[in-house]
Amino acid sequence: MACARSLLLQAVLRGGVPDPLLNISIPCALDLSGSTCPSDKVVGFDGWRLPSGRVVRGMAALDSLVLKSPDFLILSDEVKSHVASEATRLAARPQETCAVDADDARNSSDCDDTIRGPDDPSKIHYNPSVDDYGCFVTKQGENNCYNYGNDVLTNTFAQPGRGSGVCSHHDRPCVPNTCDDVRKAAESDGLKWMGKELPTELPDDGHYVSLHIWPKSNFHWLRMDANFTWSHKPGGSKVRNYDNNGKMITDPSKCDVSPWSTHCGYMITKPSKAQLY
Length: 277
Fold this sequence. Notes:
Blueprint: E1 4-11, E2 21-27, E3 48-49, E4 55-56, H1 60-67, H2 70-73, H3 77-91, E5 115-116, H4 135-138, H5 145-150, E6 152-153, H6 179-188, E7 192-195, E8 207-214, E9 218-224, E10 230-231, E11 262-269
């Protein structure tokens, strides 16, 4: 019988919900040292994270094994379809080697306590190295779009509703991934629903966030900065102020953050009051 070994992988989806873990069987001889550069998209599937923290992508042999594994097959049809499509696309890209991939790093620092940004909307700026003392950089892998959107660092990969007791820390997901369910969970955390009209003025207190849904699969949040452009933190990856097309975001309803294809609308959050966990 051919030698095989068990491997625990994480499908890197760069969304608000924690990435799924998959236990697969691979041949002992399969070389996992190769990888292409990160995806040219800023949200969605970007490879398989190994237990070491390194991300492997563009490896057709590994993709084939994962996509047929029992753990992968129990994921939602929407996730399976997106991952299969993106895995094929990434495998077809030129086999370049990246010397440094910032998104593959698991950083840590002294940013261990909850940190809240300002309630004054004129002080909300896109500056990851300074924002919340730079902790969205040094604690990159432990905070997601909901943390960044609210400008509240918790190091818990915060979920809408969990901080206000809608669900327990172990529930996956905390609430169903629909506009109504995630909005209501966020309202429970202290956010205020504002509707679907694009904000054109800064609020008196707090700042605007935009909610997007990958139907039946995941959520994503964008944050309006003081200059009326929007920035976001896809999952455990770095903070950005552009969409999948590399364009600065001025209207969340029209930007490309696919597969988060449903734009739900806008809410106001106040960092000093938002209950995140």
